[in-house]
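tool=predict chain=A
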Amino acid sequence: MHVLTNGKVEISFDEQANPVSLRNLATGREWCSGNCGSLWRIIFEQGIVQEAEALPDRSRIEVEPEAGTLRIRYGGAAAENGTLDFRVEVVIRLDGEQVCFDARLENRTANAVLREFQFPLIAGLALRPETALVTGQVCDGFRYPDIPALLDASHTGYMAQDNKAVEFGCLYPGLTAVNCFLLAEAHDTLGFMSFDPTFQNTLHLLRRCGGAVGAVLVKYPFLRPGESAEVAGYRLCPVSGDWHRAADLYRAWCDGWIEIPEKPESVRRMNGWHRLILRHQYGRQLFHYRDLPDILKSGLAAGIDTLFLFGWHAGGHDSCYPEYDFAEDEGGHDELKKQIAAFQAGGGHVILYYNGQLIDTATRFYETAGKRVSVKLPSGREHMEVYPFGGDGTALRQFGSKVFVTACPGSGEWLEILKGLVDKATELGCSGVFFDQLGYRSVPCCDPAHGHRVPFMTAGAAKAEMVKQLRAYVKSRNPEMSFGIEWFNDVTGFHADYIHNIFDSGNPFHCPEFVRYLFPELVTTDRCIRDDRDIERRVNLAIRLGLRSDVEIYRCRALIDETPHYKEYLTRANAFRERNRALILDGRFRDTVGASCDNPKVGFAVFEAGRRCGVILTGGSTAERAEVTVPGGRFTGFDRISGGEAKALSPSRILADLPPLSLILLIFER
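tool=predict ok
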């Protein structure tokens, strides 16, 4: 038996270097079931077989205890067709509540490619019924309270080997916001984290094999014969407390490399935006350049001063990219520039939309530079995407009319194209410029002409560098111009002033508190309120999370005037935001840390700003009463959007009455 312990955490391996115990010594929580199998899996390619499994060759393992560390050397890997000469060296050490792993890989097999390294693998987790999975999935977070049920729902039906293992995975960066996932309970949490400065593609994977559930991080080194690689920064973190404690460890790592930019005044003061499409992909003219004064009037009446302008060019939204020609039938460049100036003179701000990676295959650009800069698949053909918007009929949605390739973020030529689009927005006098999809995933490019490794598994890092340079260029043209991107992930997101995020408040597993708690500095919006239904709950949730409003009526096809209930309630909500801006928009979101609420039917969140503290309470469909305690706090008053009352039981303990679908802010001094 080989054991590492430091009084806080203990990890043990048997003589074959299999993990057999992972314990939080403070609580006694054991995370290994005792039969956890191999510490890693390799997936290799050989001949026409592209994915086959190799596990440690048990006869060729050396374990060397060193001062406070274990060094494990694997001299080969065993597969169905024999032993392969894949060399793996793992170094394990402890740091507080973190078990730290670094790995070195070497491929000495003459006729095989080491495609995937799945590590550190705990194949037999000791899960409890209350153990939940918390991820940064889809930009801001999901929480799955029933892991066995999640895996039951993850059967592929046909596409994968479900007879061997059923798997659930999220890919970082792009499809999940952070390079960690958590197995969370009320008093214990196990974090799987990758503190990897290369920001390479990493899959967060749960596997159920037989009756055992395992978890692992997957890297994709694609080592050819004779190649080697080192991957540092793996962490297993069995911490005491709920998921917030584990999230603090990940944020502490991020603090070593993120830079939080100063945001322009137009973003700091923004309650949200009107997101509108002037001309759509299918040719329908929804708004004209000359309609901007009416758009401003409509937005300001609801407390919205910003126009997020889509489909302003001749081709319409999601068409003709990156050829953004002015719509001459609308008055062209001069008319648009005049209307933007008038909009901003009237107290508004205009953010101009571009797409950051799509290239329409029906453009002149595609026939020239587009084919050169596009992402290529292993076959050499281009990766393609379709976004089939429809009008009054069905054929466009069923069969589509537009096909796009995507630009490789490793292409310097593409960055210069995007800079040219910044020039256009600057010349128009816009307050902000936005690039869609620059936080979203990039398919690994296999075009060696771009100068990157093939396949390009660090495209996320390249995209982050591209976004950083693009931001610098925007600020060089106009320091007060705002710069935004779509989809948050930590490697690209902090180069932007705001994020146009995904926000699915109707999904029962949605847990936006996770990423909001990790990165409260983000300016982002609620998204997905597209009609006049379920307004109070969704607006209240956005305020409780410290979000701005994305007003996108009928999927950006109408003004908020066409949803009168939404407009009326948002008007009151924005007045509430303005009264409490210093606390709930400029303050720091802390989720539930720093306060307690005795009623689980009431949502609550804590905001901090200097010595002031606010607790927002949101009610459900029935009237509720809740007792809120803020240790060390002194109650000074409350505010609300509509109904609700609060009274002090003591300086730090408040009794609040919430009518159905209400929101109350309790204010404290510390």
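The mean pLDDT is 96. Residues 459-477 form the longest helix (19 residues).
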